[in-house]
Design brief:
This protein has 501 residues and is an alpha/beta fold. The chain is 38% helix and 22% strand. The protein folds into two domains: 7-253 and 461-483, Aldehyde Dehydrogenase, Chain A, domain 1, CATH 3.40.605.10; 257-442, Aldehyde Dehydrogenase, Chain A, domain 2, CATH 3.40.309. The protein has helices at 44-60, 67-83, 85-96, 100-117, 120-123, 159-170, 185-197, 211-219, 232-244, 267-279, 298-311, 331-346, 383-386, 402-411, 425-434, 470-476, and strands at 7-8, 10-12, 15-17, 24-29, 34-40, 128-133, 136-144, 147-151, 174-178, 204-206, 223-229, 248-252, 257-261, 289-295, 350-353, 373-376, 393-399, 414-415, 417-421, 439-442, 458-459, 462-463, 478-486. The structure holds nicotinamide-adenine-dinucleotide.
């Protein structure tokens, strides 16, 4: 019997395509450390074939689709994703490692973008001005771009692609997705659901791979726009390269999110929030809280409360219903994150809880485990504060005043998410105005905007002008046109009842 792990290829032209000639990478089950699949790393030639197939599908079908057809396919797709929510969540757990509840939540947030995109007939409306001059009317249209690409990170293998493609496809584009090579299966399953929903072949494509595949997309003459989500160095590379090739680009980068706790805050609520937002999904969220800025005497009161809550956290395999936090995505990433504890000590900070001491759950000794870590007395400039760690490591910085707290947050190059905890409305209002961050929570630790608002950070957390989903996405995935028209007053008769058919 052949026990080799399955080899994943691509989804091109409405069907699975294997790519045996390409190099393959390993996909792990992070809870056991076992290699469960191999995934193809597309060569530039395969990317070219995928984009050309998408372009043909766009030209021959989707470009001419009616708004009614598009929203019907989206409604059908939404029903299918809802029906397969649990299956998709289990796939995510098996390759990413997060716990099942969390994976189900990410699929749900993706479904909400599909639901928003179902309203495309309303969202893509233009404006009309009658009689701009004698007998002349003027109106605006928003038209699709053609083939657009999405390049996505490992940490939300369903939700982040679903920030992009529902609206790109709803706007009438063909979409080529290059998912993370660490957890590619959810995207391939989603491709099958699109086909079942009635999307014409070639309008949704998945090419698996790494840097070569990404660079081929960034340079391809038939790719009109690129949406990227990932780390800041790669976001910068994607933005620079794709704009050089004349493309429209939105490239969302890394993050270092702070939770500022003022002395009048409800510290029980703040401790719950710090632990949920710091260790949920093992800290592998772009909106995770990685630093608590404790103002005045807050540190002395808050750190013991956080420590108490950490002691009760259950770390275990994602499918174990008792587990609240799973393993990290790969061994290499776990080791890199764990290395920050030594760096913190060298820089003069104090490790309060050391997650390296956790013992692996029975039967999962080779999994990529790291328990929750808490570091106190962190100061600006230390590497644990300056760098994105992307793991279950929460730092505490103690400052004397509100102004010093604002400075700590605003001095970093990242500006994705932040939160303030206070019972003073005036202080919260001042914070929302003065903080240089794109998404702000007031007594809410992970302020991820709903599908109908745009998601995106400031500074090195986003390169480009538009954020993802919300009406920003309709703008990003369409081009504007303004028509000025004059007609003579002659019309034929047509007495039938008007319908869409
Ligand atoms: P990553 O930057 O390593 O990879 C992202 C994508 O880029 C993947 O598809 C990967 O294959 C590709 N890639 C990697 N290196 C490349 C290179 N040198 N050239 C071209 N393409 C390359 O990110 P990751 O480790 O998968 O995800 C974690 C990062 O994503 C964190 O930094 C996190 O903050 C960020 N993130 C940001 C947001 C946001 O909304 N701003 C959301 C989720 C994740």
């Amino acid at each position: 019997m052949n026990t080799d792990p399955p080899r994943l290829g691509h989804w091109i032209g409405g069907k699975p395509v294997s790519d045996d000639a390409a190099p393959h990478g390993e996909v792990f089950d992070p809870a056991t450390g076992a290699v469960t699949k191999h995934v193809a790393f597309a060569r530039a030639g395969t990317v070219d074939e995928a984009v050309r197939t998408a372009r043909e599908a766009w030209t021959s079908t989707w470009r001419r689709s009616t708004l009614t057809q598009r929203s019907r396919v989206l409604f059908a797709f939404r029903e299918l994703v809802v029906a397969h929510r649990d299956e998709l969540a289990r796939l995510i757990v098996s390759e990413h490692g997060k716990v099942l509840d969390d994976a189900t939540g990410e699929v749900q947030r993706g479904i909400e973008v599909v639901e928003f995109a179902c309203g495309i007939p309303h969202l893509q409306k233009g404006a009309f001005s009658e009689q701009v001059s004698t007998g002349i009317d003027s109106y605006s249209l928003r038209q699709p771009l053609g083939v657009v690409a999405g390049i996505t990170p490992f940490n939300f293998p369903a939700m982040v692609p679903m920030w992009m493609f529902p609206l790109a496809i709803a706007c009438g584009n063909a979409f080529v997705l290059k998912p993370s090579e660490k957890d590619p299966s959810a995207s391939l399953r989603i491709a099958e659901l699109w086909a079942e929903a009635g999307l014409p072949d070639g309008v949704f494509t998945v090419v698996n791979g790494g840097r070569e595949a990404v660079d081929a997309l960034l340079a391809h003459p038939d790719v009109a726009a690129v949406s990227f989500v990932g780390s800041t160095p790669v976001a910068r590379h994607v933005f620079t390269t794709a704009t050089e090739h004349g493309k429209r680009v939105q490239a969302l980068g890394g993050a270092k999110n702070h939770m500022v706790v003022l002395p009048d805050a409800d510290l029980g609520l703040a401790a719950d929030a710090a632990v949920s937002a710091g260790y949920g999904s093992a800290g592998e969220r772009c909106m995770a809280i990685s630093a608590v800025v404790a103002v005045g005497d807050v540190g002395d009161r808050l750190v013991p409360l956080i420590e108490e809550r950490i002691a009760g956290l259950q770390v275990g395999p994602g499918l174990d219903p008792r587990a609240e936090m799973g393993p990290l995505v790969t061994r290499e990433h776990r080791d890199r994150v764990a290395g920050y504890l030594d760096i913190a000590v060298e820089d003069g900070a104090r490790v309060v809880v050391d997650g390296r001491t956790m013992s692996a759950p029975a039967g999962h000794e080779d999994g990529f485990w790291l328990g929750p870590c808490l570091i106190d007395d962190v100061r600006p400039g230390m590497r644990v504060h300056a760098e994105e760690i992307f793991g279950p490591v929460l730092s505490v910085l103690r400052v004397d005043s509100y102004d010093a707290a604002i400075e700590v947050v605003n001095d970093l190059p990242y500006g994705n998410g932040t939160a303030v905890f206070t019972s003073d409305g005036g202080a919260a209002r001042r914070f929302q105005s003065e903080i240089e961050v794109g998404m702000v929570g007031i007594n809410v630790p992970i302020p991820v905007p709903m599908a109908y608002y745009p998601f995106g950070g400031w500074k090195d957390s986003l390169f480009g002008d538009t954020h993802v989903h919300g009406t920003d996405a309709v703008h990003f995935y369409t081009r504007g046109k303004v028509v000025t028209s004059r007609w003579s007053d002659r019309a034929g008769l047509r007495l039938q009842f008007p319908t869409n058919e």
